[in-house]
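Good morning C.,

I know you're traveling, so I'll keep this short. The sequence:
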Amino acid sequence: MPKYRILIVEDESIVAMDLKQRLIAMDYEVTATVSNGAAAIEKVSSYQHDLVLMDIQIKGDIDGIETARKIQEQFDIPFVFLTANSDTATVERAKNTGPLAYILKPFEDRDLRTTIEIALYRFQLEQKLKASEAWLHAVLKSIGDAVIATDIEGRVVFINAAAEHITGWKSSQAKNVDSDNLINLTIEDTEKPVKNPIKQCLRDGIIVGWTNHTILENCSGQTISIEYSAAPIQNNQGAQVGCVMVFRDVTVARDAELKIVSYQNQLKKLLTIRTDELDETIANLSQETSKRCIAEEEALDLSRFPEENPDPVLRISKDGKLVYANRASALILDSWKCGINQLAPTKWMNIASQALSSGVGSNIEVEVKNRTYSLVVAPIVNSEYVNLYGKDITLQRQSEKKEHKLQDQLERAERMKALGLLAGGIAHDLNNMLGPMVGYPELILRKLEPDSPFKKQIKTMQKSAIDASVVIQDLLALARRGKYDLVPLNLNKLIKEYHESPNACGLFEDKSGITLEIQLDQNLPNINGSSPHLQKVIMNLIVNAVDAMGFEGKLTLKTWHSHVNELKSGFSKMNPQEYACLSIKDTGCGIAEENVGSIFEPYFSSKEMHERSGSGLGLSVVYGILKDHNGYYDIISKVGEGTEFILYFPTTLEPEKIVPVLNDTPNGNETILIVDDNAGQRELSKEILSTLGYRIIEVKNGTEAVEFIKNNSVDLIVLDMIMEEGFDGLDTYQNILEYHPNQKAIIVSGFSTTDRVEKVQNLGAGAFIKKPFDMKILAVAVRNELDKTIRVTTKV
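The tokens, ready to paste straight into the viewer:
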């Protein structure tokens, strides 16, 4: 064991010689004995000493106390004062120089040895403490999160650069300030104050954390969203000596969350802004990553702080061993299947080796048991190890996925809405054009001789016009313009009716290689629906399935009922309740994943133009009708294996209603007023009703109709709903009732039923007829309304 080197400063030579002999006898090395302060300072500067024994009263320009002060300023050498004077003033003056001990003359060898050993031991402890404090200070200063440490009274003893930035307090200002002055927290939604977490931690001795939308107001009045954790600092005996609070600015992430809440109404408008914010977030994250890559250079030991960090902190040595991991790293260690002082997974061994070789850090995202972590790789080159600083970014990634999903749903809905509006306008005009083409052939056929050679051509024209009107109805279904008359009915009955229809028979006539299996739930509840529209849905999906299979395959129709909470495919959210379900499943070519979101758009097809059949509106019509029935859909498809469409309709407890069958074409001799702004439609209605024996008066708009009714009366009005000049069927009928309160009327329109049609009917009007119509439909509606008993009407 090396001897401690001691310098003796004593102006009395006999005392100095005696002291030297006694120290040598105690196995110490006496480097020199000097009698004044100047000589002592010269000796200390030219030779390394472990301890200075300094007499307070020495000769020369400076005494022992002043000599000790100068040595302390220039050299880090401990000293012990020797004195025969113990007056209070001298002791107080000597204390300011920071001696390790005092010894009063005269003294025993035992006292001298004890004092020296205690002084040397105390000096070693102080040196270790200074080194540890310097290392911990460097670590806390360089970490990316904000850190504030306090004493047991809650006064600030440390604040790093990140905390200075967030709170606005400089380290020099914050030292010894009560933490209440720095930590001013409120709950974002309620603005209710949050108790200082440092004071809570000091009071209860537990970790205090809060991540639910907390706002910090800094010294400049700026508000910042933060996540934080406060943990107790304990000494070696487990006693609490202070508190450390770690927090970070999450303003950007919170802003993103708030924007998602309003995305359903403003997503289209805010898309560009949100993209810019996302770019800014990425830039901030990149800056944060760069900051985290600056790690400590001379760290030899681990401090208590990383262990209390709520985020993962790990260390991998140059030889690939995991040498440290804090408690927050448990999930990562479990996925790595390794422990402390064991080799890390090969991937991370390579990452650590590359980082140490290049001296450049990196940022890596990893998935661990449904959690997403961002791990900053920080190489500490001189110490030959790599630190990994983790951050849980699961919520951020989930928010981004939800945002993209909402964006896709909104764009798809807006695209369908725009196409629907266009289709609805076209359908109205085409219905007016098709009216004469559907109605006149029947009038012509009644006038032809039974053996006329023109009958076949006329019927062909009539069928073509009727087929065209079916396409128009598809456009109206796509447009979703108006309301259906929804009545209780059963899906099983509709499936059976279609299966037995000529259309179904013709569809499978040349498809002998396709087998059909029907599995119907005999206890299937009723739904509220429109029979012709749901028949259209069933037909379109079956035609689509058969077309996908070609000449062989298996088609399965299945119904069941169940309480459904969510869709398998996740296309949209649904109301959890009881649903009647219909599955149409084929073994055809399947739908490519990238096309699933577009199949309901009009005229979309993955086929070449020469391979297509039908109007191109089939699935678009299905979509429109399904939405009008408050229904939902699932699509399960795999290329080469087939496709399954699953439709969900809300059930009802009401019994099924029987729809009456139309009678034969009736006639009459009453007076009828025809009101229509389309000359062709007026002429057609006049021809049909005149042929049936009625007396006809016609006007071209609602204004002329009201003027006529002021001085005349009719038995019935055939009233067009949609007319020009901003005076439609509802406006016309309301004005007519001022002169004839019980006037009978029926409504015709190229659109489906709307709210304004219902208001006309509530005022007293009868049936609603869709254009184009044939003689029988118009005749029955007219006769039924004329035969009704007059009822008293009320204004809407």
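Safe travels,
E.
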